[in-house]
Design goal:
heterodimer; A: mainly alpha; MetI-like fold; 14 helices; B: mainly alpha; 2 domains; two-stranded antiparallel ribbon; globular
Chain lengths: 292, 309
C-alpha cells in the first residue's frame, strides 16, 4: 500500500460512516409515522377512558380531554360485575396454564428423551394437529361437552389444555433437546426415576421455555372470545372478554368512555406482562411461530 | 476395582426386573399418553364425528339422521354460503399479502440498526398481545362515520371519509385496514429471519458491486423465503378463521358485507342449531385451508431456498 492512498481511504471511510448515519436517520423518520399508526389506538383508548359521558358523539373528536373525569372506571364496576368476571377469567386462565405447562412438559420430555417405536410418527401428528383449524372440531366437541353436562361450566375451556396442546409440546420438546443429556444420565445413575429427572432437573433448567409457554397460554386464554361465547351462557359465569362486550348492552355502557375504560382494564394485564417478559414473547414467536 | 457408578449401571436393570429398553418403552408410552388421549378425545374423535354429522341432519335435540350429501348440496343453493365465502376470500387475498409486505418492510427497516430499534419493535408487537374484543371495541369507535378519529384525520387532509362500517363497499376494506394494525407477530418472525442472513454474503455482493436493491432481491429475499412461506401459510389459516372482529364490530353487516365464513358457521351451529350443516361447512373450510396450504407449498418448491440444498 502506498502512503498516498491513506488519506483517500480515510476520507472514504468517513464518507461511509456519514452515509450510514444518514440511512439510520432516514429509516428512523420512515418508521416514526408507522409506529404512530400503531400507537395511536392505544393512546386513544387511554385518553378516551377519561372523557366525560357523551364525548363519543362529539365533533371534532378530542385527543386530550378538556376536563378529565375518573368516573368511567367506577361506572364500569357499577354496570357489570367486573370483579366477578375477572375472577372467572383468572380461574379459566389459571386452570389452563397449570394443565398446559404440566402436561406439555411430560409429553415434551417423552419426545425429547425417551426412545420407543412410534415416537417419530406421533411427533409428526403433533405438528400436523397445529394446522387443523378450530372450527373443524368445534361442533362435535360442543356436542360431547353438552352430552356430559359440562356446558355452562369452565371445564370445556380448561380440561383440553390438560392434554398437552401441540404448540406447547413442540416448544418444550425443542428446548429439552438443548439441555445436556449427561445431566439426566448422571441423575439416572444416582437412582432418579424419569419423573424426578423431569421435575427436578429438566424443568428447573427450562424456566425460560416454561415461562414462554405460560405467557402465551395466558394471553391466548385471557383474550379468548369464541370459546367462552360457545360454552358460557349464564351471564354471572362470563369471562372478562365476554363481559366487556356485554357492557355495551347496558344503558350508559354503550358510550365511548366506559367502553374504553373497561377495554383498558381488561387489556392491562397483557400489556404489563408483555413489558415485563418481552424477551420470552420474542423467543416463543421465533421458535414456534405463534403470533400471540 | 469398579467405581460406584459402573456398578450401579450394571445393577440397575436387574434390580428393576425389566430390561432397560423395555422399561424405557413403557415410560415412553406413559409419558406420551396425555397427548395421545387428548388427541383421540379432542382431535381425532371430533374430526370423525364432524365428518359423520356433515352427512346428517342434526339439530342437537334429536340423534343425527343420515341424509347423505344433502348438506353439501344445500351449499350450492345457499346464497349466504357464497356470500360468506366471497367475503372471507376477498379479505384473505387482500389482507394477507398486504400484511406480509408491510411486515417485511417494517422488519427490513428495523434491521438497519435504527435508533430505538428495541422500543420500535415493542410498539409494533404490542397490538398482538391485546384481545380481539378490546381491539374491536376501540376500532368500532375509530371507524365511526361522524365522530371517529380516522375520518377526522382524513378530513384534515381534505378527504371526506366514508361510513366505514355502515357502507357495504367500505366495511371489508375497514377490516383489512384494521388487520394491518396487527402485523407485529409476522414482523418478529421475519426480523428473526433477517438477522439470520450472514453479513458476509452482503459484504461479498457489495464488493462485487451489487447495489442495495439488488442485494435485497438476490440475497435477503431468498435467504428469508422459508420464513415468508411460514408466515404466509399461518396468515392464510388465521384469516380464514376471522371471527371476533366481525361478531363485535358489525355482526356480519351491513347487508352481509362482513359475513365472515366462521361467523356464518357459528350462527348455523349455535344460533340455529344446524349442527349437521355447520359440520359440512367446517369440512369445506378445512378443505379450502388444506388446498391453500398445499398450493403455497407447491409454489414454494420452486421459489423457496433452503440452506444446505
Amino acid at each position: 500500500m502506498t502512503t498516498a492512498s491513506w488519506p483517500i481511504q480515510r476520507r472514504r471511510q468517513r464518507w461511509l460512516v456519514a452515509q450510514r448515519m444518514a440511512v439510520r436517520v432516514f429509516v428512523f423518520l420512515l418508521l416514526l409515522p408507522l409506529a404512530g399508526f400503531i400507537i395511536l389506538p392505544f393512546l386513544w383508548m387511554l385518553s378516551s377512558s377519561f372523557k366525560p359521558i357523551g364525548s363519543g358523539i362529539r365533533f371534532p373528536p378530542q385527543f386530550i380531554p378538556t376536563h378529565w373525569v375518573w368516573s368511567n372506571y367506577p361506572l364500569v364496576f357499577q354496570t357489570i360485575p367486573f370483579l366477578t368476571y375477572m375472577r372467572n377469567s383468572i380461574i379459566v386462565t389459571g386452570g389452563v396454564i397449570v394443565g398446559e405447562v404440566l402436561s406439555s412438559s411430560i409429553v415434551g420430555y417423552s419426545f425429547a428423551r425417551l426412545r420407543y417405536p412410534g415416537r417419530e410418527a406421533a411427533f409428526i401428528l403433533v405438528l400436523a394437529t397445529m394446522m387443523i383449524p378450530f372450527p373443524v372440531t368445534m361442533v362435535p366437541t360442543f356436542v360431547l361437552f353438552n352430552l356430559i353436562h359440562w356446558v355452562n361450566t369452565y371445564l370445556p375451556l380448561i380440561v383440553p389444555a390438560w392434554f398437552a396442546p401441540p404448540f406447547a409440546v413442540f416448544l418444550l420438546r425443542q428446548f429439552f433437546m438443548t439441555v445436556n443429556r449427561e445431566l439426566d444420565d448422571a441423575a439416572k445413575v444416582d437412582g432418579c426415576n424419569e419423573l424426578r429427572i423431569l421435575f427436578q432437573i429438566l424443568m428447573p433448567l427450562s424456566k425460560p421455555a416454561l415461562t414462554t409457554v405460560a405467557i402465551f397460554s395466558f394471553t391466548a386464554n385471557w383474550n379468548d372470545f369464541l370459546g367462552p361465547l360457545i360454552y358460557l351462557s349464564d351471564a354471572r359465569k362470563f369471562t372478562l372478554a365476554l363481559g366487556i362486550n356485554y357492557l355495551r348492552s347496558f344503558r350508559g355502557g354503550g358510550d365511548l368512555a366506559p367502553q374504553m375504560a373497561a377495554s383498558l382494564m381488561f387489556s392491562a394485564p397483557c400489556i404489563i406482562l408483555f413489558f415485563l417478559a418481552q424477551r420470552y414473547f420474542v423467543q416463543g414467536i421465533v421458535t414456534t411461530g405463534i403470533k400471540g | 476395582m469398579q467405581s460406584a457408578e459402573t456398578q450401579a449401571l450394571q445393577l440397575a436393570p436387574r434390580r428393576r426386573g425389566l430390561g432397560l429398553r423395555r422399561r424405557e418403552m413403557l415410560v415412553g408410552y406413559l409419558t406420551l399418553s396425555p397427548w395421545a388421549i387428548g388427541f383421540l378425545i379432542f382431535t381425532l374423535g371430533p374430526m370423525i364425528a364432524s365428518l359423520w354429522f356433515s352427512f346428517s341432519e342434526y339439530k342437537i335435540i334429536q340423534a343425527p339422521r343420515w341424509i347423505g350429501l344433502a348438506n353439501y348440496q344445500r351449499m350450492f343453493t345457499d346464497d349466504l354460503f357464497y356470500k360468506s365465502l366471497q367475503v372471507t376470500v376477498y379479505y384473505t387475498v387482500t389482507s394477507v399479502p398486504l400484511g406480509i409486505v408491510a411486515a417485511l418492510i417494517v422488519a427490513v427497516l428495523l434491521n438497519q440498526n435504527v435508533w430505538g430499534a428495541r422500543i420500535m419493535r415493542t410498539i409494533f408487537y404490542l397490538p398482538s398481545v391485546i384481545s380481539g374484543v378490546a381491539v374491536s371495541l376501540v376500532f368500532a369507535w375509530i371507524f365511526n362515520y361522524r365522530f371517529g378519529i380516522l375520518n377526522y384525520i382524513l378530513g384534515l387532509i381534505g378527504i371526506h371519509g366514508p361510513d366505514w362500517l355502515g357502507w357495504r363497499q367500505w366495511a371489508l376494506p375497514a377490516f383489512v385496514l384494521m388487520s394491518l394494525w396487527g402485523i407485529g407477530g409476522n414482523m418478529i418472525i421475519l426480523l428473526a429471519g433477517l438477522q439470520g442472513v450472514p453479513v458476509t454474503l452482503h459484504e461479498a455482493a457489495e464488493i462485487d458491486g451489487a447495489n442495495a436493491w439488488r442485494r435485497f432481491w438476490s440475497i435477503t429475499l431468498p435467504m428469508i423465503s422459508p420464513a415468508i412461506l411460514f408466515v404466509s401459510i399461518m396468515s392464510i389459516i388465521g384469516s380464514f378463521q376471522t371471527f371476533t372482529q366481525a361478531y363485535i364490530m358489525t355482526g356480519g353487516g351491513p347487508a352481509y358485507a362482513t359475513l365472515f365464513y366462521l361467523l356464518y358457521l357459528y350462527r348455523n351451529a349455535f344460533n340455529w342449531f344446524e349442527m349437521g350443516y355447520a359440520s359440512a361447512l367446517a369440512w369445506v373450510l378445512f378443505a379450502i385451508i388444506l388446498i391453500c396450504t398445499l398450493l403455497a407449498l407447491q409454489v414454494s418448491r420452486s421459489s423457496v431456498h433452503y440452506e444446505g440444498e
